[in-house]
Amino acid sequence: MRTLDPRLQALALEHYDFVWRSLRRLGITPPETDDATQQVFLTLSLKLSSVREGEERSYIFGIVMRVAARVRRNYATARKREVSEGDAPESLSPSPTAETSLSRAQARAMIDDILAKMSEERRIVFVLFELEELSQPEIAELLDVPIGTVASRLRRAREDFEAAVARIRAKRQGV
């Protein structure tokens, strides 16, 4: 029986939620999210020796972007989004009320829809900055682009997001 590399095991434990959330935010829907997460860690296991200490998160996100692109290409046919309790990793927090769960699921679905309509370049920067809380310099290094490009993509992504939210609000108000 083959034993798991201790470094790989530690990275998997530390970054599993980050990988799963990132794949979801890059447009991968359940049940493909679980398979894609496995693909990320399988790829990481094969490349582990080339990952420098302290740069694991950036390296892993690079794998996440490539796996997400491949999964989206492979599943290019239109699918309906499912909003369900199983749409997020289990949490250790107390169970929310049914109303709270529904509200969160609807908000998550709305955000997923808005992100899905953004260009990939803007979506990646938006997700990394606003949702994963990476700094602009970290994103620039991760994506290997100038910081000005990151700032521009982030500004445009925020404009796209705000415009989409405004359209949804107007639609709900019957305007």
Task: Summarize the helices and strands and which ones pair or pack.
Layout: H1 6-25, H2 32-47, H3 56-74, H4 98-117, H5 120-131, H6 136-143, H7 147-172
Helix pairs in contact: 1-2, 1-3, 2-3, 3-6, 5-7, 6-7
Feature tags:
2 domains, 7 helices, Arc Repressor Mutant, subunit A, mainly alpha, single chain, Rna Polymerase Sigma Factor, Chain: A, 175 residues
Quick take:
The chain has two domains: 77 residues, Rna Polymerase Sigma Factor, Chain: A (Orthogonal Bundle), CATH 1.10.1740; 79 residues, Winged helix-like DNA-binding domain superfamily/Winged helix DNA-binding domain (Arc Repressor Mutant, subunit A), CATH 1.10.10. It contains seven helices and no strands. The radius of gyration is 17 Å and the shape is globular.
Describe the structure.
With 175 residues, the chain is an all-alpha fold. It has two domains: 1-77, Rna Polymerase Sigma Factor, Chain: A, CATH 1.10.1740; 97-175, Orthogonal Bundle (Arc Repressor Mutant, subunit A), CATH 1.10.10. The chain is built from seven helices and no strands. Helix 1 (6-25) packs across helix 2 and helix 2 crosses helix 3 (56-74). The radius of gyration is 17 Å and the shape is globular. 21% of the residues are buried. Residues 77-86 have low confidence and may be disordered.
